[in-house]
Amino acid sequence: MNKLENYITGKWITGDGDGQTLYDAVTGEAIVAATTKGLDFASILQYGREVGNASLRKMTFHERGRMLKALAMYLMERKEKFYQISYHTGATKADSWIDIEGGIGNLFANASLRRKFPDLPYCTDGDPIGLSKGGSFMAHHLLVPKEGVAIHINAYNFPVWGMLEKCAVNWLAGVPAVVKPASITSYLTEVVVKEIIASGILPEGALQLICGSAGDMLDHVMAQDVVTFTGSKSTGLMLKSNKRILEESVPFNMEADSLNAIVLGSEVTLGSPEWDVFIKEVRKEMTVKAGQKCTAIRRIFVPEHLLEDAYIAIGKSLAQTTIGNPLNEKVRMGALAGLSQREEVKQNIQKLLAASQMVYGSLDSIEVIDADAQKGAFLSPMLLVNENPFQADVVHEVECFGPVSTIMPYKDLHDAIALSKKGKGSLCCSIVTNDNRIATDFVVGAATHHGRILVLNREDAKESTGHGSPLPLLIHGGPGRAGGGEEMGGVRGVKHYMQRVAIQGSPTTITAITQSYQPNAKGIQSNVHPFKKYFEDLQIGDQIITAKRKITSEDIDAFAELSGDHFYAHKKDTDFTGTMFEQQVAHGYFVLSAAAGLFVDGSDLGPVLLNYGIDELRFTKPVYPGAGLTIRFTCKEKLPQDPKDENDIPKGIVKWLVEIMDETDEHVGVATILTMVKRKN
Ligand code: NDP
């Protein structure tokens, strides 16, 4: 029998011995074996740290982001190959789309995220902190890529997405990965990794793959590594308490079993749009991936007077789900990942049946299209009902990792919230309601126990991404029983692979380190106006102090006429008794416009292409007629932009700090404005 290959220390290597035989989920035929016997796990991790990490940490966020985009495009062109292999896992085309294109989508989303970071290998975290009266001492927080490897131990249900949703994040952070997919579906992960390595897009050492047992890998982790785990609670707990992980304080992100719930709002009536949305969502979540989704709906809570109507309607809807060979176009639900997984689900259903009754489906009989129901890991969708959910702990404890869900009644919203929490922490929860008071009370009341809450109704159902879809820009994970972990989440997720350090120093030093101008830092004066400099030539801290402009009452009247803003404070005949002002005050936008009149230099064509907008703007002191304004104008940050096509003008965005001072040298306003600036090349 052929053996899967492991990609380690820069080579494709097969493990020793016969290994574990892996089977086609649909036909039950043996297809390949997986073994990691003989691999030296200590040197695999060391290689990642020394080779992969060294390359990735030198790259800037923007370079890493562009690398992710290139990889995403490369894999997208080869997706058909992955779909063909994915059928062997029991997945339908729609299931595979979530796994394959969902995974590649994560690469795209994280590639775009580069724009939220500077064009540096590291970044700041949060706001600067002033620590002195005189302004010469301050602090910031800096995030630098950890010096270790990300070790991902993944579940069997998403062999592609499971790898890419995590790797996209650690690569953007500048950290390499060692991926250990669950053995039974690792043949699909292997094919994708073969393409990734062949692409040559990643620096060597950025990705290593282990198909089979993780051996003693966790005994070699070090303080700079990060371990993530997705799978069962029992395995997760065992790995999390590994002595080496504890000794080295290695971050361990766990995502385990989760008894996710959906609640039908108490105001929903039979046949209303929300009723239809609810039935559709339940059916979808029970049958997509044959219920083998960590986020699938396992518990359904409905107002008690709707219990019977709800389970009849869900049953009717489930009856439309055709089951069988996922290669057959008529099939809507494929097989579980393997026969042992089916056996485990059946055993768990027996546990639930001790307290509940089956109202739809069957443990043993099933009609399948184009397949053998016994040889393939097929299972009928099953809906159970439990009328005493506060008494039956088992329905809130046992996760049947298949197309199985239990419907239960609730009396009032307070009960619905309490029942949702009986899962002791879940990845996600939904409520279907068109009443925003109910939605608010539920979300605020239940939020402590769920990683994500979806509110569904007639307004958002059509475009909703659904109960069961973790999204790259939202956190994925849940408290308590769901593992207590948190992955993805846009910028938040990237930080899990970076070390945060507080830095203290003078504003000038902190400017140099962060490459972001800090107020009170020394500016760089030159004879050339910064608007005459190309993007490459601008330095953070380039500064001009402008000439003075005197603001007059006529200026204010003229601006009021021009803008149409006749707010009482800008009129000279207003009685200012009891107001915030002493006399006619200049419009804030006039002050900013007058500032632009002082700092802009661009009567001839130059590198500044356009005004891109304002990030922040504060007016800190009233400007009265007679005030003399001066501007300190400083280059604050530079953000490169990628050309859209070869005809696009090469350019970047420059942020400028605009400090507007009056004749007493006090700030009357502060703004961060943005311009688009041409590159030389
Ligand atoms: P497991 O916990 O058995 O396996 C998860 C991962 O851990 C696999 O990659 C597995 O590798 C690996 N693993 C197992 N033992 C060790 C070890 N000693 N050292 C290092 N790695 C190890 O979960 P399953 O995949 O078998 O799924 C079982 C249950 O987990 C499901 O029925 C479901 O309840 C839950 N689950 C939860 C998910 C979630 O996202 N919340 C997703 C998928 C499953 P190997 O395959 O080689 O054993």
Topology:
Blueprint: E1 6-8, E2 11-13, E3 20-23, E4 30-34, H1 41-58, H2 61-77, H3 79-86, H4 93-112, E5 123-124, E6 129-130, E7 138-145, E8 150-153, H5 161-173, E9 177-180, H6 186-199, E10 207-209, E11 226-230, H7 233-240, H8 243-247, E12 252-255, E13 261-264, H9 273-287, E14 299-303, H10 307-318, H11 339-353, E15 357-360, E16 382-385, H12 394-397, E17 404-410, H13 413-421, E18 426-432, H14 436-446, E19 450-456, E20 475-476, E21 487-488, H15 491-494, E22 498-505, H16 507-514, E23 524-525, E24 542-545, E25 549-550, H17 553-563, H18 588-599, E26 608-619, E27 628-640, E28 651-661, E29 667-678
Parallel strand pairs: 8-9, 8-11, 9-10, 11-12, 13-14, 13-18, 14-17, 16-17, 18-19, 23-24
Antiparallel strand pairs: 1-2, 3-4, 5-7, 6-7, 7-22, 15-16, 20-21, 24-27, 25-27, 26-29, 27-28, 28-29
Key terms:
681 residues, 30% helix, 18 helices, 29 strands, alpha/beta, single chain, globular, 7-stranded mixed beta sheet, binds NADPH dihydro-nicotinamide-adenine-dinucleotide phosphate
